[in-house]
Specification:
The complex is a heterodimer of chains A (318) and B (363).
Chain A lengths: L1 H26 L14 H9 L6 E4 L4 H6 L4 H8 L23 E4 L7 H13 L6 E6 L6 H12 L4 E7 L2 E2 L2 E2 L10 H5 L3 E6 L3 H16 L5 E6 L19 H10 L2 H11 L5 H24 L15
Parallel strand pairs in A: 1-2, 1-3, 3-4, 4-8, 7-8
Antiparallel strand pairs in A: 5-6
Chain B lengths: L4 E2 L32 E5 H15 L3 E5 L15 H5 L4 E3 L4 H13 L3 E5 L6 H18 L9 E6 L15 H4 L5 E3 L4 H13 L4 E6 L6 E5 L11 E4 L4 E5 L2 H14 L5 E5 L2 E3 L3 H11 L2 E8 L4 H12 L9 E5 L8 H5 L5 H11 L3
Parallel strand pairs in B: 1-15, 3-4, 3-5, 5-6, 6-8, 7-8, 11-12, 11-14, 14-15
Antiparallel strand pairs in B: 2-9, 7-13, 10-12
Helix pairs in contact in B: 1-6, 3-4, 7-11, 8-9
The chains are: A alpha/beta (318), B alpha/beta (363).
Chain lengths: 318, 363
């Protein structure tokens, strides 16, 4: 368990450092387009993916860098994709919102809200039909609760007892609107209506996320069927890197409360030091190493070449 | 300038000349020069089923999803018997949940299966367009070629079944507009079988449109193994005076019109693209270069549709060979009405084609 906790700490910190550099690339005008930062939500991706095998599948979202890294993606190839470089995960054709990586079971990030619910369910169908023993995690934000295809998918998954976990990251904001303005009733009543097992967890506590996920994943892998995991979390930053004036939809005090009291990395760090699993110096050394790695990965991507224009017609068809 | 023109007015209504449909049920589409002594007469629906059954025997990864595809054999009874041979694990009844089970097919296709998804009426493509256009069509490209989507979506097209505005449209132009999809529009049992087998083996998402009014149309189909490549047009009738490029349900109408035209000394060539994408532009352009006149016809809406694309191909590729404007015939730009005399007025008929060709040929 000690090893697991340190690994999860390292992964959350890696995601944080990655995302801070993404913001930096944007503000330095080095990145084409925008990106949606995962800062503040790291415990969800890391805790969930800690419970998965490498060959288990995930689907991700427009806010997906954390999911991809937690499932094992390399930061250098991620940075390259975000910068539209040929060396990127998708040869520069996907960008921030479409990282896909078969080697880590990543079926792809999806920029249609709720767009991957049915795809993920199809991967679970394949796993069962082909007897692969793989579990699928479908990540989505609470904004996707408004999309009908999510409910069609949960209905199919429950009818056919498919090995899939629907992970709802409630970061509280559908873009610029608080979820209470868009979401009627109790969220967990929705999966319950289809007969799915469901659980709610503090999404800032990576240990709780891992333990809850592990139980649901084991259940799914052993033929117990689909489940729904609701993670209560918070988007520390704006909807995207350019969303810096947020007063019209949420108060600065609210943000400050979450960043000072509910930071998932600080919460696990405190647990590690209080229980003498690691001391502050060790955690600082880890941060130093990761910072150097991330800086090197980012610089490698900045220096790497763009695709040549003639590649635009490649890969339209298999 | 002899460029594309549009038929905006109402089509000539002539009852009794529209050969597409349930009458006569055993209409013969004519001998196919490629068939051998093992040829049988199969209906269009039987040919589709035979293709699917052969591919399911050949490859365990082929599975079938849709509403009432198992015991009911689909609403049109096209797939009757498949569940008995392949079992409910492979021929799978779904909820009435088109977006859900189509998206499920996309995900299953990415992860090792070769699903066929059945969309009962092509009109219901409205419900699955995100799964088709934003997901299936783009996954290979967006992932830099890392994920493939070997999926077939079966759908129907065709009016005059008295089913009104939400069960009668021919919407094959929609997927044809999206890079990453392939679109098949067969017109004969022979072509339906060969093209379906190719579609199932293709590593890309393919939308396969069946004319629901042709399900009982009979034609020669070899019993042996054969496939037809996507992107290869077929000259259904050789002629010299005018080219009629026709798709799916309109091919039989074009052939009927060609017979009428013979009586006034016009020898029409009928070219069937068979797939709207990939599109065999060469065969179409070569035919028009030979005949110097062209009608393009398709049961989708004429405006912004497949016929418009075919007309553009001809205008670009055979401009200096044209002796008359390329003329487009398609469904009238109205929601398909229920009442028979109204509905019949919306679809091109043999008589419409005959009159148009006569005018273009100066007869």
């Amino acid at each position: 368990m000690t090893e697991r906790l340190l690994r999860m700490y390292r992964r959350m910190l890696a995601i944080r450092l990655f995302e801070e550099r993404v913001n930096d690339l944007y503000t330095r005008a080095l990145m084409p387009g925008l990106a949606h930062l995962y800062i503040g939500e790291e415990a969800v991706a890391v805790g969930v993916c800690e419970a998965l095998r490498r060959d288990d599948y995930i689907t991700s979202t427009h806010r997906g860098h954390g999911h991809c890294l937690a499932k094992g993606a390399s930061p250098d190839l991620m940075f390259a994709e975000l910068l539209g470089k040929k060396a990127g995960y998708c040869k520069g054709k996907g960008g921030s919102m479409h990282i896909a990586d078969p080697d880590t079971g990543n079926l792809g990030a999806n920029a249609i809200v709720g767009g991957s619910a049915a795809l993920a369910t199809g991967a679970a169908f394949s796993s069962k039909y082909l007897k692969l023993g793989r579990v699928v995690v479908c990540f989505f934000g609470e904004g996707a609760l408004g999309q009908g295809v999510l409910y069609e998918s949960m209905n199919l998954a429950q009818l056919w007892t498919l090995p899939i976990l629907y992970v709802c990251e409630n970061n509280q904001y559908n873009e610029y609107t608080h979820f209470s303005e868009t979401t009627a009733g109790e969220i967990t009543a929705r999966p319950a209506a289809f007969g799915l097992a469901s659980a709610s967890v503090d999404g800032q506590d990576v240990r709780a996320v891992y333990e809850t996920t592990a139980a649901l994943v084991d259940r799914a892998r052993n033929g117990g069927g689909p489940a729904f995991l609701l993670c209560h979390t918070y988007r520390f930053r704006g909807h995207h890197v350019g969303d810096i004036s947020r007063d019209y939809y949420r108060a600065k005090q609210e943000e400050q409360r979450w960043t000072s009291d509910r930071d998932p990395i600080a919460i696990l760090g405190a647990h590690l030091t209080e229980h003498n699993i690691a001391d502050r110096d060790a955690l600082d050394r880890m941060a130093g190493e990761l910072t150097a790695q991330m800086d090197a990965a980012m610089q490698w991507a900045i220096d790497s070449p763009y695709p040549s224009p003639e590649e635009v017609t490649e890969d339209v068809y298999a | 300038m002899p460029e594309t023109t549009t038929e905006n007015g109402p089509h000539v209504v002539t009852t009794g000349t529209h050969t597409v449909g349930e009458t006569p049920a055993t209409h013969d589409v004519g001998a196919d020069p490629r068939v051998g002594p093992d040829v049988r007469e199969l209906t269009f629906g039987e040919a589709v089923k035979e293709a699917i059954a052969e591919e399911m025997r050949r490859d365990d990864r082929v599975v079938l999803f849709g509403e009432d595809v198992a015991e009911a054999g689909t609403a049109f009874k096209v797939l009757t018997g498949l569940v008995q041979e392949f079992g409910p694990q492979r021929v799978i009844d779904t909820p009435i949940s088109e977006a859900g089970f189509t998206g499920l097919g996309v995900g299953a296709a990415m992860t090792g299966l070769r699903p066929i998804v059945d969309i009962m009426f092509g009109d219901f493509l409205t419900l699955v367009m995100d799964q088709l256009a934003n997901q299936a069509a783009k996954i290979h490209y967006m992932s830099g070629g890392k994920w493939k989507v070997p999926l077939v979506v079966r759908a129907t097209l065709g009016a005059t079944r008295r089913s009104a505005a939400q069960h009668s449209q021919s919407l094959h132009a929609w997927p044809s507009h999206i890079p990453g999809l392939k679109v098949v529009v067969p017109s004969t049992p022979h072509d339906a079988k060969g093209l379906m087998k190719t579609a199932i083996r293709d590593d890309n998402p393919v939308v396969f449109f069946e004319d629901k009014m042709q399900y009982r149309l009979k034609g020669p189909v070899p019993s042996g193994e054969y496939t037809i490549p996507l992107g290869a047009a077929d000259v259904k009738r050789v002629g010299t005076d005018i080219t009629i490029v026709a798709t799916s349900s309109m091919v039989q109408v074009a052939l009927g019109a060609a017979t009428l035209l013979e009586a006034i000394g016009v020898n029409a060539e009928v070219v069937d693209p068979r797939t709207t994408w990939p599109l065999d532009e060469k065969t179409i352009v070569e035919s028009v270069k030979k005949t110097s006149r062209a009608i393009v016809m398709d049961e989708g809406y004429g405006r912004y549709g497949v016929a418009a694309e075919l007309a553009a191909v001809i205008a670009h590729g055979a401009f200096y060979n044209l002796d008359a404007p390329v003329t487009r015939l398609g469904a009238m730009h109205v929601p398909i009405p229920f009442s028979p005399p109204l509905e019949d007025a919306t679809v091109p008929t043999e008589r419409t084609v005959f009159e148009t060709a006569r005018r273009l040929c100066g007869k």
